[in-house]
């Protein structure tokens, strides 16, 4: 991640928020490429993924979850996060190695995700202050909670105060969020954006969570299960956005799935982002 004060929305954030809400201005075309990695334990390594030296490349480790186990009946731990990604292949030493090999690579950590064990991973704090205190020992973060046992204001205060504390203490220099088209999800992220939008640097909007009828987006899912796919016009849409100076970046779910096709679309995405208009 370019640890600087950029406010980059990977697409037009008005799709997510009502027009009357205050939106920070996004920059023009960006060479930002982001990819989630590690959630599906497919033995994918950082070094497997092709990295174009002419883009800003962000790996997002997925996921750190405040639950105690993936076996039996996992229980929420009130902000005490544990590793739920493929740490054998994506260890701290491997993070250091990929960053030293590629100066344009940064590595982030995603909190939450969809599930833990055989159930959903719920945002379930005991209190705002206790959750923030327990979650303190983190690096750069992406907020990816999709299920909630807390109201939007509690979510906003927990996540917002965490981001603010980490930034103020120099622990992280960026934060991103990963919302999608769901009423409950949007109500929680809208509350967060309304109160703490000035602290959010990137928005990974999950356009692949839409129905097949969606025609323009700036993210794709590698297994082709949703949204506008690379085979059916994703890159045409991105080229159009780039020609209009509106392509703020591309993000992908996920490197684990892309491994089986040789990261074909990662290469194509980065090549597109690296082109100057």
Automatic annotation (TrEMBL):
Keywords: Glycosidase, Hydrolase, Signal. One of its GO terms (molecular function) is hydrolase activity, hydrolyzing O-glycosyl compounds. SUPFAM superfamilies: (Trans)glycosidases. The lineage of its organism: Eukaryota, Viridiplantae, Streptophyta, Embryophyta, Tracheophyta. This is GH18 domain-containing protein. Residues 1-25 form the signal peptide. It comes from the Eukaryota. Pfam families: Glyco_hydro_18. Belongs to the glycosyl hydrolase 18 family. Residues 31-277 form the GH18 domain. GO terms for biological process: carbohydrate metabolic process. The keyword Chloroplast does not apply.
């Amino acid at each position: 991640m370019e640890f600087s004060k950029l406010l980059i929305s990977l697409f037009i954030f008005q799709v997510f928020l009502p027009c009357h809400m205050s939106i920070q201005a996004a920059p023009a075309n960006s060479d930002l490429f982001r990819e989630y990695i590690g959630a599906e334990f497919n033995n994918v390594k950082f070094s497997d993924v092709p990295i174009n030296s002419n883009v800003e490349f962000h790996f997002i480790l997925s996921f750190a979850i405040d639950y105690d186990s993936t076996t039996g009946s996992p229980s929420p731990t009130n902000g005490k996060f544990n590793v739920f990604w493929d740490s054998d292949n994506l260890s701290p030493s491997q993070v250091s190695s990929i960053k030293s090999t590629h100066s344009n690579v940064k590595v982030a950590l995603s909190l939450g995700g969809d599930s833990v064990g055989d159930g959903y991973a719920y945002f379930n704090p005991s209190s705002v202050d206790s959750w923030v205190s327990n979650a303190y020992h983190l690096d750069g973060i992406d907020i990816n909670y999709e299920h909630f046992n807390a109201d939007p204001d509690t979510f906003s205060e927990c996540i917002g105060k965490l981001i603010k504390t980490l930034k103020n203490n120099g622990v992280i220099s960026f934060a991103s969020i990963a919302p999608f088209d769901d009423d409950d999800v949007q109500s929680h992220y809208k509350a967060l954006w309304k109160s703490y939008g000035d602290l959010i640097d990137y928005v990974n909007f999950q356009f692949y969570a839409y129905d097949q009828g969606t025609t323009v987006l700036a993210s794709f899912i590698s297994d082709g299960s949703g949204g506008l796919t690379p085979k059916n016009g994703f890159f045409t849409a991105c080229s159009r956005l780039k020609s209009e100076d509106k392509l703020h970046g591309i993000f992908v779910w996920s490197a684990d799935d892309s491994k089986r096709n040789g990261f074909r679309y990662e290469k194509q995405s980065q090549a597109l982002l690296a082109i100057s208009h």
